[in-house]
Amino acid sequence: MTDLEQFLAHVRFGAVIEGGSDLHRFMHGAAQEALRTVAELNSGYRTPEEVRALMSELTGAEVDESVTVFPPFHSEFGKNLTFGRNVFVNLGCRFQDTGGISIGDGSLIGHGSTLTTLNHAVDPDRRADMVPAPIVIGRQVWLGAAVTVVPGVTIGDGAIVGAGAVVTKDVPAHTIVAGVPARVVRATGFGGGRVPA
Predict the structure, then answer these.
(1) Angle, to 10 degrees, between the axis of helix 22-41 and the axis of helix 4-12?
(2) Dihedral sign, CA of 107, 73, 19, 3?
(3) pLDDT by residue (tens digit) across 62-120?
(4) CA 144 to CA 181: how far, in whole Å?
(5) Under a CB-based contact definition with an 8 Å cutoff, are residues 68 and 85 in contact?
(6) What are the residue numbers of the active site?
(7) Are 67 and 48 contacting, i.e. CB atoms less than 8 angstroms apart?
(8) Is 35 helix (H, G, I), strand (E, B) or coil?
(9) 160: helix, coil or strand?
């Protein structure tokens, strides 16, 4: 029987979660626990302290008092989600953190943003299989409203992602990206970032 540490070790390795496997069943069981916590978070007004307590319950680790999350907030796993200090998550964000989401100190996540860390198999006969890949958001990153970040993307320190962008590739530190798919627009002008050639 799979436990949380075994599951997290498996996904950190990037190994396939086979549909119908013990790992798959564990993931679905963990999702039910997360969904209960998220339902409580989103069922009415919560003070900032209550929100942080529920986020700590969701993630299985204490969320720093400097973190602010504005509900509604959605996560289907929770236990592979980490926040740095002074992180702000605006209304209506959806984090599929099964494959791992890490958000660095001072980062801002715009309302309605979606971060997803699982891909399904391309082969239709194996479509229930999932391939995890983490999202890493550096320090002092700003995601605009309704940004989508796909599995396996790293967003470098100080980067800005324009509203509505779909981020399919790593974003260099101290650059601004925008569009679908997101492309580098320019350097931020802070932190010595250069626009890649």
Answers:
(1) 100
(2) positive
(3) 999 999 999 999 999 999 999 999 999 999 999 999 999 999 999 999 999 999 999 99
(4) 15
(5) no
(6) 120
(7) no
(8) helix
(9) strand
